[in-house]
Write a structure and sequence with these properties.
With about 180 residues, this protein is an alpha/beta fold. About 30% of the residues lie in helices and about 20% in strands.
Length: about 180
């Protein structure tokens, strides 16, 4: 079985715009800005033979605010810039009640089936409570990035980190124990 680091997309890999305390994804691929330290973090994790899989909710598609094609172009832009093994996307909104939308673990379980991943020895890194909840429901160790909108009061992550690079260094330390 393989190990993976599951990564939320917006706010973990790329910059979000925050309005009224709520993060929003880039409007199009041209707006994608990879956050500082992300390439280094992913290279470090990749060097330790961890699969790098993005798990992202994109409800703006269901809400009619963004098209699926736009989301796929943004995902493609990230794949061109970063050493990612896969990107799994939930296009549903909360009311749809799907199994793939975080905080449910459906995308993590799907990725585990597709890539032979041992979820108990894998990690989830996110910037919101729903990322932590999904990771915990799948049996992963969880990291929550310390950002103002993370709604930490709604979850109990295993670890807090200031950035993906800090989380990556801690994951490597944990692997060496």
């Amino acid at each position: 079985m393989r190990r993976a680091v599951f990564l939320d997309r917006d706010g973990v890999l790329n910059r979000t715009s925050v309005r009224d305390g709520v993060p929003y994804p880039p409007a199009d691929a041209e707006e994608v800005e990879v956050l500082a330290g992300v390439p280094e973090a992913l290279i470090l994790l990749e060097q330790h033979r961890l699969l790098l899989i993005v798990i992202t909710n994109q409800p703006d598609v269901a809400r009619g605010i963004q098209t699926r094609a736009t989301v796929e172009r943004i995902n493609q832009r990230l794949r061109e810039q970063l050493p990612l093994d896969a990107i799994l996307t939930c296009y549903h909104d909360t009311a749809d009640g799907c199994d793939c939308r975080k905080p449910r673990p459906g995308m993590l379980i799907q990725a585990a089936d597709m890539y032979g991943i041992d979820l108990r020895h894998s990690f989830m890194v996110g910037d919101r409570w729903s990322d932590v909840a999904a990771g915990q429901a799948a049996g992963c160790r969880t990291f929550l990035l310390d950002v103002p909108y993370n709604q930490r009061h709604l979850c109990t992550p295993d670890y807090m980190a200031a950035s993906l690079l800090e989380a990556a260094k801690e994951i490597v330390r944990l692997l060496q124990q």
